[in-house]
Design goal:
It is built from four helices and eight strands; from the N terminus they run ααββββββββαα. The protein is an alpha+beta fold and about 150 residues long. The strands form two sheets. Strands 1-8-3-6 form a four-stranded antiparallel β-sheet. A four-stranded antiparallel β-sheet has the order 2-7-4-5. The longest helix is centred in the last third of the chain and has 30 residues.
Length: about 150
């Protein structure tokens, strides 16, 4: 993931500091499911230590692992867009320490400060674009007859 998709790289210090004032430190033991695809997206996390695996339901098969996230990365983007429903699932791959944010509080901050709203929206949009590309590549690797190989053009 690029520096522009981490909170540190994407947000100016002023906006990071405002967000961190409402953060709550949390811990997830390895194997803990943070959220399930289709559930209400009422919070999100920034990983301090450990790793989280994003997964996607695949009909007739076990969930497919899409991406592994680590230090400084955003866990969850569905909180930003109505209807606020998780589009992927997430499970702690190792013990995880993270900063947890209440999604409604952050959305209200963004409404009250349009400049912050633009910056946060662009950050989450970059994360979303990266996650969609990762999901596409991973699903092609898992389920396409010849994988996602670079020889296939669309």
């Amino acid at each position: 993931m690029s520096d522009t998709t981490t909170m540190m790289g994407a947000l100016p210090a002023e906006h990071r500091n405002r967000l961190m004032r409402i953060a709550r430190q949390t811990f997830f033991p390895a194997g803990t499911r943070l959220f399930e695809e289709g559930g209400h997206a009422g919070r999100f996390w920034i990983i301090r230590t450990g790793s989280v695996v994003l997964d996607m339901r695949v009909p007739g098969r076990r969930a497919a692992d899409i991406e592994t996230l680590g230090h400084g990365e955003l866990v969850g983007w569905s909180w930003m867009f109505p209807p606020y429903v998780w589009q992927l699932g997430a499970v702690a791959q190792s013990p995880v320490r993270a900063d947890e944010f209440d999604a409604l509080a952050v959305r209200l901050m963004c409404e009250d400060d349009p400049a912050m709203g633009v910056v946060v929206g662009q950050w989450v949009g970059r994360v979303l674009a990266h996650r969609l590309q990762s999901a596409r590549t991973r699903l092609l690797d898992l389920y396409a007859p010849y994988g996602s190989g670079s020889g296939v053009r669309g």
